[in-house]
Amino acid sequence: MTRSLKNILVTGGAGFIGANFIHYVFNKTDFSGTIVNLDALTYCGNLESLADIEAQYGVSAGGKARYFFEKADICDRAAVDSILKKYNIDTIVHFAAESHVDRSILGPEAFAKTNVMGTFTLLDAAKNYWKAEDGTIPENFLFHHVSTDEVYGSLGETGYFCETTPYDPRSPYSASKASSDHMVMAYFHTFGLPITLSNCSNNYGPYQFPEKLIPLMILNIKGGKNLPVYGDGKNIRDWLFVEDHNSAVWTIMNKGTTGEKYNIGGENEWENIRLLEKLMEIVAGELKMNLDDVKKTIVHVKDRPGHDRRYAIDCTKLKTQLGWKQSVTFEEGLRATVKWYLSSTDWVNHVQSGEYTKWIDKNYSAR
Ligand code: NAD
Ligand code: DAU
Fold this sequence. Notes:
Strand content: 15-25%
Number of strands: 12
Structural class: alpha/beta
Bound molecules: nicotinamide-adenine-dinucleotide, 2'deoxy-thymidine-5'-diphospho-alpha-D-glucose
Helix content: 40-55%
Number of helices: 14
C-alpha cells in the first residue's frame, strides 16, 4: 500500500533531523502538498536552517505557500488541537524531543516533559482529531514516531539490535524515548490510532547543534580547542548520514505497515577514537593544519555516567520489506559534513554567538 500524504505536520522541524527532513521532502521527493513545522524553538531549534525553504515555499514567498511555521510546544494541548484543525493535517511526523544524553544527565525533567508528556499530548490530540466530532476520519491518517536505538540499551562486543530486542534504556534520555515508544504502541493497540515507529542509530550531517560529537569535534579542531574524549574512547556507535535517515522515514510514512516498528541504521560501526582520528585527518587536510599538532589536542575526560558501550542496528526488516537502503558512504558523508561546517560560517557563527535565536523576530515580526 502507498499512502497519499497531503498536509504533513512536522514536529521539531527546526532541529537537526527535522530541518533536514523538510529539505529532503521539498528537494528530493515528488511531494506536492503542505508542510507545517511545529517547533517550540528550544536552545537547539534554529529557523535559520530553513531560511531557503521559507524563501521558496513560505508565506512571504508569494504565490501559494506550501511551508508554514508555528511556534508552539507539543505539551500545549490547545495549541496542538488548533494547529491540527487549522491545516487539516492528515499526517504527523514527530521529531520534537530533548535529544542530548549529556543534558538528560544534568537535567532530566525537560526530557520527561517533552519526550513523555509532549508525545502523550500529541498522541491524544491526534486521536481526538482523528475521531472528529462529525465522525469523519481523514483518509490515510498517520502518526509516525521518530525514535532512537538507545531504547534497546547497550550491546557487548557482538550482536545487533533488531525490532524484537527487549527495551533496556539506561539514560534519562533513552528512558524517556522508550516511554514515548510504549505510549505510541498503546495508542495503536488500544485506540486504533494509525501509527508507525522507527528506531534509528546515530545521525550526522548539516545543521546539527554543535554539542553532539561530530560537529563539536569539527569546530573544536578548526578552533584549535581541546577534543574531549569520554573514558577510553572505545565506545561504539553506528553512524548514518541524516539524509539516509530521512529517506527511511519517508519510505515508512509512504509504505510502512500501520502498527509496525522499523529499525534504521548505517551498518557502519566506529569506535569514537577511530572516528575522531578520521575527522582530524579530514579537517586538518581541508584547513592545511599540521595533523600532529591537532592530535595533541585530544584529552581523555571523565566518562559519561551510564555510558552505553556499543550500538549496532539490524535494519534487515526495512531493507527487505520496504526496499530502503543507505545511499551515502561514510567517507562521502563525513567529507560533505566537514565541508558544510567549514563553509557555513554564518550558520556556525550565529549558533556560537546565540544570534540564531533572533532569526524569528527578524523574519516573522511583520506577520
Ligand atoms: P534536536 O535536538 O536537534 O531537535 C529537536 C527539535 O525539537 C528542536 O527544534 C526543538 O526546538 C524542538 N523541541 C524540543 N522540545 C519541544 C517541545 N516541547 N515542543 C515543540 N518542539 C520542541 O534533535 P534531533 O537530533 O534532530 O532529533 C530529532 C528526533 O530524532 C528526536 O526525537 C530524537 O530522539 C530522534 N533521534 C535522533 C538521533 C540523532 O542521532 N540525532 C538518532 C535517532 C533518533
Ligand atoms: O543512537 C542514537 C542517539 O545518538 C540519538 O538518539 C541521540 O539523540 C543522539 O544525541 C546520539 O546520542 P549519543 O549519546 O550517541 O551521541 P553524542 O554525539 O552525544 O555522543 C556520541 C559518542 O561520543 C558517545 O559515545 C559519547 C561520545 N562523546 C560525545 C561528546 C559530545 C565524547 O567522547 N565526547 C564528547 O564531547
